[in-house]
Specification:
Blueprint: H1 13-62, H2 64-72, H3 74-97, H4 99-125, H5 134-154, H6 160-171
């Protein structure tokens, strides 16, 4: 039987299940992270679409030249009134939807799931192969799962459109790392035999 080198440990049944569960956690947090990023970006766009017209129209209605024409031409006064109504409606929609806060909430959740995703990947790919016992690893895994539960409880729900878009992006390979490509160069160079300084 071959001797184990330093840093190696046998893959017990318990360790296998710990790694399997950690990989599930990594996959789950990846979808959550991407979904929240997509949702945050969507609310950012909505904030721009609603906020920019309000600023422009408010500027037009409040312009001195526009006000002077409104006194002379009744049609301009009507247009000014319509603009004022549009500003009120858009402002009301913005207040009701609150896109700025929703953007911030989803972005914060995305960062939280991103960190947990990295920690889960590091756990199963590195930590599980160190000297820690299965009992210790199980405890660490439970801590990671508890962090996910807390994030789920404190994060806004991902809209279905954002989840579908995030899933499509993941399937398309947006979350892949070049180092995980089978054709990528090895992480560590192959050991080569150096020529001996001594004559043969």
């Amino acid at each position: 039987m071959a001797e184990m080198t330093t840093g190696e440990r046998p893959a017990s049944k318990a360790l296998e299940e710990i790694i399997r569960e950690a990989k599930r956690l990594e996959e789950s947090t990846l979808y959550s992270m991407k979904g929240h990023h997509v949702a945050s970006n969507g609310w950012s766009n909505r904030n721009l679409w609603l906020g920019l017209p309000v600023v422009v129209i408010s500027g037009l209605v409040g312009a001195t030249t526009f006000s002077q024409y409104a006194e002379t031409y009744p049609a301009v006064k009507v247009v000014a009134g319509l603009f004022s109504v549009a500003v009120a409606v858009l402002s009301g929609i913005t207040t009701f939807l609150n896109p700025n806060d929703k953007e911030s909430a989803h972005l914060s959740a995305a960062h939280g799931f991103d960190k947990l995703n990295n920690d889960a990947r590091l756990f199963w790919s590195v930590d599980c192969w160190q000297e820690a016992s299965d009992v210790v690893l199980t405890s660490q895994l439970k801590e990671l799962v508890e962090r996910k539960n807390e994030l789920n409880s404190n994060s806004p729900q991902i809209p279905s459109w954002a989840y579908k878009k995030a899933k499509a992006g993941i399937i398309a390979g947006e979350a892949k790392f070049e180092v995980d490509n089978p054709d990528a160069p090895a992480a560590l160079p192959h050991q080569t035999t150096l020529p001996s300084d001594k004559p043969g």
